[in-house]
Amino acid sequence: AQSVTQLDSQVPVFEEAPVELRCNYSSSVSVYLFWYVQYPNQGLQLLLKYLSGSTLVESINGFEAEFNKSQTSFHLRKPSVHISDTAEYFCAVSSGGSEKLVFGKGTKLTVNP
Amino acid sequence: GAVVSQHPSWVICKSGTSVKIECRSLDFQATTMFWYRQFPKQSLMLMATSNEGSKATYEQGVEKDKFLINHASLTLSTLTVTSAHPEDSSFYICSAVLVYEQYFGPGTRLTVT
């Protein structure tokens, strides 16, 4: 069965510092990869996704993630974070043509002034 | 586009009663919707897959007689928690599928007293 590992449960950083949130998934023939962000007491918002094509995907608010098939990773990065980026981030994967998502346990990003 | 709503956003009910949560896709039709449960500071746990016009498919360990799912139309799925107990208190999130992607509702906070 597919599994997703987010190695860091909490990541504290200072404002304007770079950040990387790590995500690894178990190997599969074909995968779709997603990063979602969740603010307190809210649902999930899609941050970015990899379906096919370019392995580097970007969001409108400066985040990017790179699909690395050999390392089965999809790490999320941002070169300079803002206070407003403080939230919980979930990595998710679907595979084998299934619409079901398997979620990682989440990484709480806290941006401090 | 691709907006999903949930109603109510929060509900408090007494132990032994039933409560219904609605999930609607506002601007698209969805033959498949998913229901998740999220405990505090934890990831999303898939409860069931809701398919329009057919019975829901429940994940292992989820009581189908306790969590009744009805997907009566292409824009509405409902989750009814029957004979609620305090341990059913949780954050329930639905999603609707559009072109292989899931779009999430804002969630419903259920508290059983």
What report would you give on this structure?
The complex is a heterodimer of chains A (113) and B (113). Chain A is mainly β and 113 residues long. Chain A has no helices and twelve strands. Chain A has strands at 4-5, 10-14, 19-21, 24-25, 31-38, 44-50, 56-58, 64-68, 73-78, 87-95, 102-103, 107-112. In chain A, strands 2, 5, 6, 10, 11 and 12 form a six-stranded mixed β-sheet that branches. Chain A has a four-stranded antiparallel β-sheet with strand order 3-9-8-7, with no helix packed on it. A two-stranded antiparallel sheet of chain A has the order 1-4. Chain A starts with a strand and ends with a strand. With 113 residues, chain B is an all-beta fold. Helix content of chain B is 0%, strand content 56%. Chain B has no helices and eleven strands. Chain B has strands spanning 4-7, 10-13, 19-25, 32-38, 44-51, 57-58, 67-73, 76-81, 90-98, 101-104, 108-112. In chain B, strands 2, 4, 5, 6, 9, 10 and 11 form a seven-stranded mixed β-sheet that branches. Chain B has a four-stranded antiparallel β-sheet with strand order 1-3-8-7, with no helix packed on it. Chain B is globular. Chain A binds chain B through residues 32, 36, 41-46, 49, 51, 90, 94, 99-101, 103-106, 108, and chain B through 4, 6, 32, 34, 41-44, 46, 49, 91, 93, 95, 97, 100-107, 109.
